[in-house]
Amino acid sequence: MTHYINAKLTIERLNGRGEGVAHFNGQIIDVPYAIAGDEISAEIDGARGYIGTIDTPSPDRVPAFCEHYTLCGGCVVQALHPKAYAQWKRDLVKRAMRKMRIEAPIAEVIDAHGQGRRRVTFHARYVHGLGPMRIEVGFMKARAHDIVPLDHCPLLSPALNNALPVARAVAFALRGISKPLDIQMTQSDTGLDVDIRGCGPLDEAARRHLLSCADEHDLARISNHGVIILERRTPIVHMGEAIVPLPAGGFLQATVKGEEVLASLVCNPIHKARRIVDLFAGCGTLTLRLAQIAEVFAVEADEAALKALKKAAHHTPSLRPVHAEQRDLFARPLSTKELAGFDVVVFDPPRAGAEAQARELARSDVPLIIAVSCNVQSLARDARLLIDGGYHCELITPVDQFRHSSHIECVALFRKALPARKRGRLLG
What we know:
The chain has about 425 residues and is an alpha/beta fold. It has helices at about 80-100, 165-175, 205-215, 255-265, 285-290, 305-315, 335-340, 355-360, 375-390, 420-425; strands at about 5-10, 15, 20-25, 25-30, 40-45, 50-55, 110, 120-125, 135-140, 145-150, 180-190, 190-195, 220-225, 225-230, 235-240, 240-245, 275-280, 295-300, 320-325, 345, 370-375, 390-400, 410-415. The strands form five sheets. An eight-stranded mixed sheet has the order 7-22-23-21-20-17-18-19, sandwiched between helices. A seven-stranded mixed sheet has the order 10-9-8-11-12-13-14. The chain has a three-stranded antiparallel sheet with strand order 1-5-6, with no helix packed on it.
């Protein structure tokens, strides 16, 4: 049996997970949904505290806007004043850099929420009991595997207003399988793109139910773990001047505004470049915009994403030449020899970062490196490698397209001082 200790706590700050931090009897206590300046009565279980009552609210506390806040695990910080919230997000970057002994200018946080999230994954569970089977569709509860059934999410873009009814319809269509499902919805210019994970191979009856669901809800496409079941219209998005056919179940930046901000931060510092390499290029988020400036060599491991990139580039005659290679940069990063002759390197890896590639980059003579990252810890590690290799971190700009979560993206600029003769050859 768990024995809680009742205590009065003063919240001192927010940690990297967005939880309030207090001290009690010489121990650090993490308190979900508390914010700096709150004075609370709490129940303590080990190193975790749980709000009983907020006796004196922080001056930075504001009303939460969602009725599911503190139940749904999607938002960790919703009751924090926007100014204090932006400072917390910026502090996440500062702490990560300080830990790796990196001194670099950190810009103010750019809010890139825009109209809201254009990608969302709902979870569906089939609950069997004494009565009829229930289908629960929504997000996971905070720190649990239970589902919070939802009727809406205020963080989604207007184009995803019907995403929850569609997710429930998909779950109902697959009720004969009764496996836990993840249902990914992506907004495209031609309609909803739906990818289902967790159901395994589908029999003919399940496929027929899904086809009916796609017709009823006018879905652009529905797929099972990236394998297309029905494509009524090819889901497309615009990236710069290009039109990109989205791979089924593929990656896309979370918000339209976020993609635009990241691309702008990457492209704006590039002047007089002739050859650019875009590593972890995906389906062309940055490549297709960089190709408006210079010739681009795009490298990506995912075959479907690379195919979409090449098709978009081929059908956009205004772009400079785009060359592409399928390659696993974790196993086989571009070597210093292969990097020779490029004016700019852009890399935008998954959350794990690009340690192997960063080691090669650190030994290179590429004048400008631009790192895009959704994980400040892996960015700090990779930045440390570049700095140790002679690069100077000129600026780090945080970009927030995951509002009210503990995630923050960054764009970091690194320059290496080169001899005048070599610099003239590369950038003249």
